[in-house]
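Pipeline run #58 for the internal structure catalog. This entry was flagged by the ingest filter as a single-chain record with no existing model, so it goes straight to prediction. Upstream metadata was stripped on purpose; only the residue string is passed forward. Reviewer on rotation: M.T. Logging verbosity set to normal.
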Amino acid sequence: MKITMAHGSGGASTSELIENIFAKHFKNEYLDRMEDSAVVPGSKRLAVTTDSFVVTPYFFPGGDIGRLSVCGTVNDLLMSGATPKYITCGCILEEGMDLDDLDKIIESMAATAKEAGVDIITGDTKVVEKRGDIGGIMINTSGVGFMPEGIALSPAGCQDGDVIIVSGNLGDHHAAILSGRMNIKNSIESDNAPLVEMVGGLINEQIKVHAMRDVTRGGLGTVLHEFAGASKCEIHLYHDKIPVSCEVKDFCKMLGLDPIYMGNEGKMICVVDGQDAEKALNIIKKSKYGDKAAIIGEVKKTDNNGVVLHTAIGGERLIGPLYGEGLPRIC
């Protein structure tokens, strides 16, 4: 069966769609009430975020748009030090979308939410006429997390002597999406994943974390450039320490891409006090999705602000943010 305009009419077809797909997979005590808004237990300090997800194709090696939408929102909450608790789900469906595909995507969202320890507590569905340019489905997810006492992370928090840790290989998600879109056969899979365990480990072990950011669009170079500007510091990055898989390196050489600017959906940059560097690295490496983590740079307070990449042959290269489109868009 296919999505029709009747599924967005607000009538019987809409009710059937919600009951047979969304309510079936998202079932929990808050959503089951089917009220206009979900009333949930709260906290003194909340972290709130929202994001929208459009990706072609919506099924790709290693994931799908449903898993992507949960991971993206959960990780945004984690990067502020919050414990993710609740997520909303807004779906815009294109007329003609296959209902079996929708069922798989919503099932994937539910499974990823369970893995991340969050409840999907409310949502909305709209159906639009087929236009051929939205890829069948767009998803908006908003998230709410609880802030632990004493946690206050900021891109402006980098200090002299801090070290830069990346949680794993860069470029996997970007390369997987482009491979799927361009029908290039390889073994690269997306890294889309919720980083709950590794961030929770750092906070529970009271690691002195000064800044965190998930490495999504714009890549490592853009994130570190923002950190250097906000903290008014110089970040030194060591090219031979940046983890990139052999498959992604070959893919980049073939298309002329730079892994430093490629998007990821399950990797983070963590800036920690130098004295905590090895302990933090071990916590991340032992966590789910963190086994390829590495220390890739350091922070120096100088009269200069910016990111300096030390190349494998002993040269230096200034790293700026990604300008314009730069790379083929993936979402």
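catalog note: DSSP finds eight helices and 13 strands in the chain.
catalog note: The longest strand covers residues 83-94.
status: ready for reviewer M.T.
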